Amino acid sequence: MSAMNWIYVMDDAALLEGHMTPIYPLGVNIVLARVGGVVYAVSGKCVHMACPLFTGKLNGYTITCPCHDWRFDVRTGKFLDAPELSLAVYPTKSEAGRVFVNLN
Amino acid sequence: MNIESRKKALRYFFEKVVGPLGFKFTPDAALVEFLLEQEVILEGKHGIPFCPCQPLRHDRTRDMQIVCPCIPFHRKHFDILKRCWCGLFVHKDVLDPAKLPQLSPKEVGIE
Amino acid sequence: MKKTIVYTLSTCPWCRKTENFFTEHNIPFAYIDYDLADEATQKRISKEVDAAGATGFPFVKIGEEVIVGYQPERYSSALGI
Questions:
Q1: In order of start, what are the domains of chain A with their CATH numbers?
Q2: pTM of the model as a whole
Q3: Which of A81, B23, B39, B62 could form a disulfide with B57 if both were Cys (CB 3.0 to 4.6 A apart)?
Q4: How many Cα atoms occupy the beta-carbon half-sphere of A81 within 13 Å?
Q5: Chain B contacts of A86, Cβ < 8 Å?
Q6: Is residue B26 situated within a structural domain?
Q7: Which residues of B touch C35 (CB under 8 A)?
Q8: Per residue in A58-85, pLDDT tens?
């Protein structure tokens, strides 16, 4: 993975434990979530009807879509009721107080 | 809301969901048109495209399990029937949906 | 003739087919569109649906027999026609 692929998206301290926030690096719709101190990044659009997941709920590792309650594991992106469906997952890293996401 | 354009939108969303689950839109085109139109009407009324053939219970947990496509929440039942309850979706290998019976979960041994 | 009651949804094509079946066979029947019914009626029907292990409509009662789904052969059998 090339270092060029990492995109700075926000300061590490800005995302609190148990919270989500939307980001749009290069226009890509992503939701960031911090669970257990780790920052996870998945597609910000529900696989069902593209509802914005950042306005849903984060409970442990589970994101619940605000529209129709579809639930996803923020670590794997998998839809909990049918693992064939999943959100795109993006690698993240924190360095020097800054969060980076890799879009590749 | 323009019903035809919303039907197209629902078709676009649903196709991407049901394909990976082994389902497709029924080859009965008239049924697809009718059911999608009912869903658009239900969406206009409730804000959500519920299944036209399952009753709302006014209990969020239960009602969210009949939002189209509701296949993920009734997988075992619908895999046995090779169709969803309203027949909008059938297994990919189904060519003649008229032959598929509409049996309750209890009738196919699911309690 | 056994008493026939059909619970339906106004949005459900299989419910319309079911009603057509009884009409075409000259079987007198009562029907309630669940989605257009009042809250008390919906609650009562909802309990019957749950008790029968059903999830969807049409929900048909012919005498004491409950038949869930559009099943014309079972309607005929229950009615002895």
A1: 3-102 (2.102.10.10)
A2: 0.94
A3: B62
A4: 21
A5: none
A6: yes
A7: 55-56
A8: 999 999 999 999 999 999 999 999 999 9
